[in-house]
Amino acid sequence: MERRKFLKGAALGAGATALATPALAQGGKTMTIVSTWPRDFPGLGISAQRLAARIGQLSDGALNVEYFAAGERVGAFDSFDEVASGNAQAYIAADYYWTGKHPGFAYFTSVPFGMSTPEWNAWIRFGGGQQLWDEVSGEFGLKAFACGSTGTQAGGWFNKEIESADDLKGLKMRMPGLGGQVLSKLGASTVSLPGSQIYENLVSGAIDATEWVGPYNDYFMKFYEAAKFYYTAGMHEPGGGLAMGMNASWWGGLSDYEKAIIEAACVEEHAYAHDETIAKNGEYLTKLVDEQGVQVRSFNDDVWDSFGEAAAEVFEETRDHSELAARINDDFQAKLREMGNMMAQFEIGYVNQRNRVLGLGE
C-alpha cells in the first residue's frame, strides 16, 4: 500500500480527524510552520496539526497560520535550517534531531537515563531549563517552547531477543540523539531516520531494529510485520518534550499578545499530547499482543548496566564539546538527582506499592 495513503487511513481509523490549515484572515502576520512529521501521522503528526490549528484559532486573525507536514515544503530534517534562515517562521520537531548542530539540543527532547516527563517539565519551567534552551537555540537564531510529550518511550522493535550487550553488536538500528550514541558505544550501527522512512527500511532489512514512540503510535507503523520482539521502557527516551522552534527575529517582532497566544497554545498541546498518549498506550499494547502476536520483553539488569556504562561515556564526550554543552549537562544532571530522589520516595514509592497491592505489571 502506498505509504501516504496508509498513514492517512490509519489516522482516521484511530478515530482522529484530519485537521485543516486555518483559512487566512486579512491583515494578520503570517506564521508558516514546517514539521518533521508526515500529515495525519497518528499521534505526533496529528498533535502538530492540532497545535497549528489552535494557534490560528486563539489568535482570532492576528496570526495567519500555514502548516506544512514533512515533505510538503521541505524534508523533515531540513526544518531547522528552513526556520533558522527565516524562510519559515516555526518548526515542530524533536530537538534532539539537531545534535549535529549542537549536542546540547538533546537535553531539550530527552537523553539516556534522563528525566521523566514530569521531572523534565519541572526543570524547563521552574528549574532553569528554559533559560538554557534559550541560550543554545539563540546561537542559531531560534526561540523554542515545549509543545508535546510522549512519556516514557518503548525500548524498541527487534528481530531477535536482546539478552546481553553482545546481542547489540553489529545490530543496525534507528535511534537518534544521545541514545543512538550509547548503542554505538556497545557495537551497534545506528542511524537517524524520519518517521516516514522507518517502516520501509525495517521491512527491507536495511535496519534490524528501531525505536519509535510507544504502543499507540507504534501500532499504526506496522513494525510488527518485520520485528516481533517489542521491548518496554527504553533508556534512550524516558520523557521530555517535543519542540516548537521559532525564528528568533520573527518572534522578537511579535506583540506581547501574539507571543502569549503561541506560548499558551504550546503549553496546552504539550499536556494534551502527553495525556492522549498515556490514555491510549494500554489499549494499543493489548492490540499489538492479541491481534498481531507481538512478544513483549524487558531488558534485563545486565543490559541496563551496559547501557549505563556507555551513557556515562557519552555524557563526558558531550561535556567536552563546549562550555555551554557542559553547563547544560551539569545543570540537567544536578536537577535530575534532586528531583529523582524525591520522585523515588514519593511518586514512584506510591506507584510501586499500589501496583504490588493490586497485582499490576505481573
Give an overview in words:
With 362 residues, the chain is α/β, with parallel strands linked by helices. The chain folds into 2 domains: 3-151 and 239-279, D-Maltodextrin-Binding Protein, domain 2, CATH 3.40.190.170; 154-238 and 294-352, D-Maltodextrin-Binding Protein, domain 2, CATH 3.40.190. The protein contains 13 helices and 11 strands. It has helices at residues 3-13, 44-59, 79-84, 117-126, 129-138, 177-185, 195-204, 215-219, 248-252, 256-292, 301-319, 323-345, 347-358, and strands at 29-35, 63-68, 90-93, 142-148, 154-158, 172-174, 189-191, 209-210, 229-233, 242-247, 295-297. The strands form 2 sheets. Strands 7-6-8-5-9-11 form a 6-stranded mixed β-sheet, covered by helices on one side. Helix 6 packs across helix 11 (301-319). The longest helix has 37 residues, at 256-292. It is globular and about 60 Å long. The two termini are 38 Å apart. Mean pLDDT is 93; it is low at 1-25.
State the main characteristics.
362 residues, alpha/beta, D-Maltodextrin-Binding Protein, domain 2, five-stranded mixed sheet, 13 helices, 48% helix, globular
CATH architecture of the largest domain: 3-Layer(aba) Sandwich
Helix content: 40-55%
Strand order of the largest sheet: 7-6-8-5-9-11
- Under CATH, the topology of the largest domain can be stated as D-Maltodextrin-Binding Protein, domain 2
Count the DSSP helices: 13
Number of strands: 11
Top-tier CATH class of the largest domain: Alpha Beta
- Helix/strand structural class: alpha/beta
